Amino acid sequence: MRRLLNYKKILTFVVTCILTTGVLAVSLKDYDNSSIEAKTIAELQEQKKENQNSIANLEKELKELEANQAEQQAYQKTLQKQIDLMQENLRITEEELTRINGEITATEDNINQLNSDIAVLEQNVSDNTEIFKQRLKAMYITGNDSLATAVLGSTDFYDMISRVEMISKIADHDSDLIEGLKNDIDSLETSKNALETEKLTLEMKQGEQETKKAEFNENLEGYNSAMKKSQEEIERLKYEESLTEQQIAEHEAQFKKADDEINAIIEREEKKKREEEAKKQQQQQQNSVQTKPPAGSSVTPSYSVSGFSWPVPGHYYISSGYGRRWGRLHAGIDIAGGGIQGASVCASKSGTVIGVSSSCTHNYRKSSNCCGNGYGNYVLVQHPDGTVTMYAHLQSVYVSYGAKVTGGQALGAVGCTGHSTGFHLHFEIRVNGSAVNPQKYL
């Protein structure tokens, strides 16, 4: 009987060990690898404790990350306040530049008018001087020896009266001629002094303009630097970086085609102007009309690419500047930033619309072209000095071909048509058909 009890105890112990081992195997099979099998209970307990500590540490890191996220939001909020203040300073400086440019234009007009007046006065002085010379020559040849000769040479009383009256009139004419010549010379000197004053005023305004331009560019540089840290720009750059080489190649091919079309438009307009000028000259020759103005009276401005204003007032972030980009020349600047969609795009300078594309309706961000023209909706304006400005990716266009526009006039609204990865204005200045860096002239 005792042996049977001992046998049952041994059997119970063995079964318990087997069940315990099975439970441990089931509970640990998804947690550890085969090395667990070699560890003791104490070692497993120690591993569990270490894992729990790691979980606690990860929890702390998660909380820190959450705190950092809140700090990032606060940083972005503070950054936006800074950007708004920078933007306001840029608007103020731009307004100052606009007023200075207006004063410069008015002064240049005054100078041109004074040059024209001086040319007329110089011609009057020249004509009257020539008349006076001829009068002196005639007096010398006839030996004019005053009233006595006229009296003694008279045949009768009436002849004497006539001669005296004639001499009196000639004397009055000579006096008037001399007085008029003197007045013309005085007026000429006054106009020349006024011209010198206007030129000094112009030089002062131009110096002030250069100072304000430097201030604007300095503020713009800081503004662009701050904008690059904004979340919106970070996301835009990530989107551009996601473009494939094939998409970039297609992008460049489309813009190459568009550039060829634009150059063809500019050349067509230049040819048209040359033909119109030749026709005008031919008509003048046929009518034998002399249209050459007096020397110095021309009011045609000398060649200049100055006087351009910012094309999107209130929006100054340059997301992509002039220079090499994606293996080719980015021939202008891209003006972007928060809230720019639908903003007014204004003529940077007065001129004539020589090209318009307005059929694209795909106004959204895209990584490929949508309307057969990488620039989407655009406007080309030719200016009196021969330069051409371009405004591309518009969501809508307000002007038509041949329209005369003034500086600051709205041409359209900022959009995302054509091949565009975000809402922005692509702005170009072309001189003699070649693109130049717009930032040197704005």
Largest β sheet strand count, sense and barrel closure: 10 strands, antiparallel
Report the uncertain regions: 1-5, 7-32, 289-305
Number of helices: 6
Q: Could you estimate the helical fraction of the residues in percent? A: 55-70%
Average pLDDT metric:
75
Second CATH tier, the architecture of the domain at 249-276 and 308-442:
Distorted Sandwich
Model description:
- The N and C termini lie far apart (113 Å).
- The chain has 6 helices and 12 strands.
- Strand 11 (425-431) and strand 12 (434-436) form a beta hairpin.
- Among the domains are: 1-34; 249-276 and 308-442, Glucose Permease (Domain IIA) (Distorted Sandwich), CATH 2.70.70.10.
- The chain has 442 residues and is α+β, with helices and mostly antiparallel strands.
- It has helices at residues 2-28, 41-142, 146-152, 157-227, 231-241, 245-287, and strands at residues 317-320, 323-325, 328-330, 333-336, 344-346, 351-357, 377-382, 388-397, 404-405, 410-414, 425-431, 434-436.
- It is elongated and about 150 Å long.
- Strands 1, 4, 5, 6, 7, 8, 9, 10, 11 and 12 form a 10-stranded antiparallel β-sheet that branches. Strands 2-3 form a two-stranded antiparallel ribbon.
- Helix 2 (41-142) runs antiparallel to helix 4 (157-227).
Core attributes:
single chain, disordered N terminus, 10-stranded antiparallel beta sheet, two-stranded antiparallel sheet, alpha+beta, 442 residues, Glucose Permease (Domain IIA)
Sum this structure up briefly.
By secondary structure, the protein is an alpha+beta fold. The chain is built from 6 helices and 12 strands.
